[in-house]
## 1
Amino acid sequence: MAKNSMADLLEIKGLKIEATSYPPGEKPREVVLVDGVSVSLEKGRVLGLIGESGAGKSTIGLAAMAYGRGGVRLTGGEVLLNGRNIRGAGPVTLRALRGREVTYVAQSAAAAFNPAKKLMEQVIETCLLHKVMTRPAAQARAVDLFRKLGLPNPESFGNRYPHQVSGGQLQRAMTAMALCPKPDLVIFDEPTTALDVTTQIEVLAAIKEAIRDQGVAAIYITHDLAVVAQVADDIMVLRHGKTVEYGSTDQIINRPGQAYTQALVSVREIAHVEKPPAAPILTVDAVTARYRGTNFDVLKRVSVDVAPGQTLAVVGESGSGKSTLARAITGLLPPHQGAVTFAGRRLSPDLAGRSRDDLRELQMIYQMADTAMNPRQTVGTIIGRPLEFYFGLKGAEKARRVAELLDQIEMGKGFAERYPAELSGGQKQRVCIARALAAKPKLIICDEVTSALDPLVADGILKLLLALQAQEGVAYLFITHDLATVRAIADKIAVMYRGEVVRYGAKSEVLAPPFDAYTDLLLSSVPEMRLGWLEEVLGSRRMESAGN
Amino acid sequence: MRIPFSAMLGLGLTALMVLAAIFSPLIAPYGLNETVGKVWENPSAQFWLGTDTIGRDIFSRLVYGGAVTIFVALASSALAFSMGAFFGFLAAVRGGWIDTGLSRLVDVMMAVPSLIVALVVLSVLPLTLTTLVLVMGVLDSTRVFRLSRAVAADIAVMDYVEAAKLRGEGQVWIIFREILPNAMSPLVAEFGMRFIFAVLFISTLSFLGLGIQPPLADWGGMVRENKDGLIYGKSAAMVPAIAIAVLAIAVNLVADWVLSRTTSLKGGRNG
Amino acid sequence: MHPLIILVVQRIALGLILLLAVSVLIFLGVEALPGDTAQQILGQGATPETLANMRESLGLNEPALTRYFSWLGHALTGDFGKALTNKMDIAQAIGQRLGNTLFLAACAGVIAVPFAIGLGLLAARHNGRWPDKLISGVTLATISLPEFVAAYFVIYLLTQVIPILQPVSMVFPGMTFLERLHAVALPVIVLVMVVLAHMMRMTRAAILNVMQSPYIETAELKGLSPMQVIWRHALPNAVAPIVSVVVINLAYLVVGVVVVEVVFSYNALGQYLVDHVSKRDLPVVQAVGLIFAAVYIGLNIFADVVGIVANPRLRHPK
């Protein structure tokens, strides 16, 4: 391959990307996804692309292979790869470079691997297809990469089928598949987003090590600035398909120029002062729970309490039982043993046995605001129903109260007529908050309410929840996997692991050493917004993550 | 809202046939069983579509027969629909042994093609309109049951249904205000499919001589009466055959459109 | 034991239980309905005495369950008793006709399966463009027609407009294979039309479903050509759904056959069933009904077993 050593490996100039959108019942129309984006990448360097959903970062990543997903078209600008423009190149040219010069690591490796073929076959497929090396050489290289990426039993790992290995292992295998044909450039498209926090860090470290070891260039796409800060040399911040800021990682993290970038950098810095201990409004006493038809305890003697007007954060990874705790408290999953006391009353374990006031004073907000609202009801109906149901409000009085609530969640009363589908993700979650607030509850259970949202939007929701707590004196039981969120909102913290509370107390105590092994692992897994954090933390860890 | 041409065509033809069925006595120039001409006369100004195997006016019989075909199909699909939807929703919302029992029963009924079951059952029962509607309705309710159970079960696990339960809402509110409005579109499209199926089913039974009995007439039976004419080059049998095809395709076009609207509401096209 | 074998055995056992339940439905369901075999045989003019004698000789006074097990026991050994109408042995009458039915269905299947898969692939390959729209439109129209209407369209076209074939399909012992083929040409065309449409639409849907999987994008980004993508990555995952589509539609042929046999006066099992339904000859109806049910359920079991065996998650458990 003739290469000009002076030129950049990849140079994108004034890229414009468009797609046709098909709104139901309307004429199709053209939408601009990416406009005027320019990027350059030298051999062996890593570029981070960051932005919220819809920023166009994945679209740009795939454009480096001149690939448009679905009906997406590259309509303007140049994509120079190894010195030649590949935008608009013919299928033969493109097939020759895809999987050879540029390779791709998808967000969900579980879906991106063919379920019917062994991993080895898929990992070495490009090597054989592009005649980079012979089958034995490719297999030897694959085993070598498996070993470098920390996969168990590297010699026999390739004989397994995708469904036989864990999510974290598949993501590493996908990285091996991308590196196997010795490409010049690898696109990593949110490779750790679908993983649990403790697993994410290990996969991230493995990827970083492999990139350095193989000397390839990489584009690393993510919505998490703290993650990209650990691997990238340069960072481009994108919003609505346009470049907001483009610079070295050091400059973006330590001296952000644009207001949007500054907001992203400072996103997890809500200052929250812990409130003093008080008599509890909710007491969960030695609750054990199992799902119907099983004899495995998902919750094991869990005891926590929440004080009025304060926040208890329940932290844990998937499978820790934190959402089951919410179901046990609300009565959706009656506890097997133990008791729940709320506002001085012992609650019936079963939903059917609870009084209307029990139900009213204990509200819940869900992770996915999309599925938490009936799509056939207007915002007014959704917020108005609890008013009618619990307080018998009707007509003008109800409308006035709905308008008040919309005001409280910083949305205008004009939204009452809209349907959920017409709202943004943050607005939907706000409406769910208003619905809970309408019942005048004493406690709201918040189940991962910010984890489906973009960082800045999530930040807004957290600030709103804090403001409402100050106004209304409502208590929160806040379930999350994200320790940064915990720091921002909690007065007390319960850390859960495999159905048990492993650490429990005031925020200042729980977050202060000495730590138990699991809390240490969890705390050390939260990416921090500074350079060199990843190396630092890997040197000091005591426990391997469970699900790698 | 833009209605595509194919759906407009389907709606128009369906409406035309239903209107003709309702006003059949006003439209038909001759009586249903009135012998008015010679055997298998060609179409003329007097007999618009010719005459049949014993000299009756085919156009008049087509109009009257259409009324019977559409009525029987409508009655049995309405029965299938109300039974299937009721039990399907019940199974999805209540779960437990009610769900298991109903689902296994439906499995057995669907293990053999409806036509075979219908033939076996009709070998014992009297061939009256009521029997036909009941047999077809009950057999076809199994498909509606499966669909409505699946749709309702999908909706019943949604967080907004859980939110309603947590609020303390009763079963009536949950079924009629939370689940039903979201299940309507697929169910409406399914009603069209069930109606087509009933038209095809009753026509087939009548064609086999096991459906509508004289003196009543329907389209399937008309094909049967006139089928021997084809050997002598008389195409009288083709008229009711075409009528069945047109009705089925027309309703299909409408149902297809309703269905495409519901899917595009869910996730849009082409990702 | 390998979990796959357990699953397959379970599925077959389930199918057999289903068949048993259906046989109960066919036998007891018919017996429980108003109407009486003895009355059917003797007609309205029968005296109570002759009726009682007839019931006695038919064994109708035995409890229903006893009669069911005796019927099932005989059926399993190939003894369906004698027809009420002409006192002929049912098993013998069925034997001959079953051959004719299977011949017709096999001819239709042999033509329809490759066509359906080919057209399904073609439509899926050109998803949304004109070949797809054309194929989908034509098949939608075919699906909307009952079998006998489709049959008369074909008859009209091939005997009146272009007179090349006879509208009646007589087969009798002693015909050569070629003569038989010529005789069944029209009914086979009709059956192919009807089955092809369903099979092709379901094949297309199965392939499109696989083609939308993320691993197909992975394959495209590896630089594989469209044919390599389909051959190496789509097909291994599409085989199970396609086989299942094919088998389910072959089972559907059972229904199509009944009507088409009547249209063409083709002397086979479907014609035999319809005749005896109108004569209300219960033993014949029950026997033929059971055979159709067994074929249908058997093919469905086969489709499910293929689905189980082709699933890598089940073949290679964790």
Note: The first helix of chain B runs from residue 5 to 22.
## 2
Amino acid sequence: MVKLGVFIQRELRLLARQKADWLNPVLFFIIVLCLFPLGVGPEPNLLRLMAPGIVWIAALLSVLLAAERLFKDDYRNGVIEQLVAARQPLLSFVLAKLVTNWLSTGLPLVLLSPLVALLLNLETPAFVALLLTLLLGTPLLSLLSVLGAALTVSADKGGILLALLILPLYIPLLIFASAAMEAATMALPYHGQLAIMLAMLLFALALVPLAVLSALKLNVS
Amino acid sequence: MMHFQSFSEFLAMGGYGFFVWLSFGATYTLLLALVVYSHFQQRQCLKQLADKLAREQRIKQYQESSS
Amino acid sequence: MFKWLHPLAKPETVYHLCGRLYPWLMLLAVTLLLLGNIWGLAFTPPDYQQGDSYRIIHIHVPSAIMSMGTYSAMAIAAFIALVWQVKVAQWSVLAIAPIGAVYTAIALITGMAWGKPMWGTWWVWDARLTSELILLFLYLGVIALSGAFSDRQTGAKASSLLAVVGVINLPIIHFSVEWWNTLHQGASITKFAKPSIDPSMLWPLLISILAFKVLMLALLCLRLRTAILQHEQHRPWVKALAGAV
């Protein structure tokens, strides 16, 4: 586990050098959010009604966008192959990827949520719910997208394939997150939804790293 | 005991003919397509293997005759 | 038991076993399917509520049941493939996924054709329909992943892993869709009462379910043979086989 810090440092340094990797998905998120009002009309009530769905679909797509390049460079450079061959603790590499992926794609979405609330005319309770669901949901998004990226590392046509693999797995998250926000706009309690999201997050946290490990291993052998 | 009185009545399915025959038609088309496609794949695979084998043998013969 | 199962891990044995089983299974499947469907179409009384449209049940219910049964079969094969690294199990995952996808598509199409006269629309976001649609996406994901690699063996392994991930997620997806459904719409449609089925209608239905099951096995035999040939191209026994054609 000593290596975890080293790997995280390396990932952060890489992210600092390749700013497009994390800036583009964030920009994409904002642009999608701006497109929705243009598409369905600027009616504030309508926007408020559709906000949960819009925000979460935009978040899913932007995380997906970032996921595609997650392991590509390390695979092409032979880093993953070296790690597997050298019997290095691959787990800390995977965990570092997870942490930095969340820091670079999940955290910006959380930080942007006030802006989202402004754009979509959200009131304070809905905004708080948005913030909470994003805090709980984006780590789960990162986990699943890391899994998808690991499965398709050595695939010839990654991009659209990744969407096909991962989007069905996002569905429970989408349902519960938007349900929580909907409940918040109607001033109903939404602890239940948050608890289920937390449960899904912990469950995924326990199992996904193992699946990512074996996915990476089978891709280099 | 046959339920329907006549063949045209059988086809009409009590007014639901379109839906019943649509679903049965779609089902049998899809299943038949899958069976035919699987057979086609199997035959294609064997043929490709045979072609590959013949090519390898030709190359071997050529190398032997030229050396 | 293990001694008895052990030869089944050898591709050559499986190839010949499947070849011997396939004609009989196919014959049985076609017979059962025709028997069940003709019985169900022509020789049963109509439902007192739904009239003759209920006859779609004889393909809708078997395909829906088997779409899930096929997924669990695929997941079991995938689990064996991952844990014990049995190659035949990996190839079974590839062979079985298209069968499941076709069954799921059939269940969806027949469900829609049944829904139009009963509910008035082709599609409702009913929990069962939605789950079935997501199941189709999961199947398509497995199929797409298996074909995406230049190295066939990697594709087979990755698909196995995805199938296992999918089967862990399936209950979560199903539960959340059901929950979402009850939240969003009244129980008007989902609660359409399931009357206790008359024995005269039950028998053809059971035969059709069995027919879909046997057909799945038959197609698995056929497709597994192809998968074995594709993956074992360089083995002497495959070469001997191909040379004899």
Note: The helical segments of chain B are 7-12, 17-66.
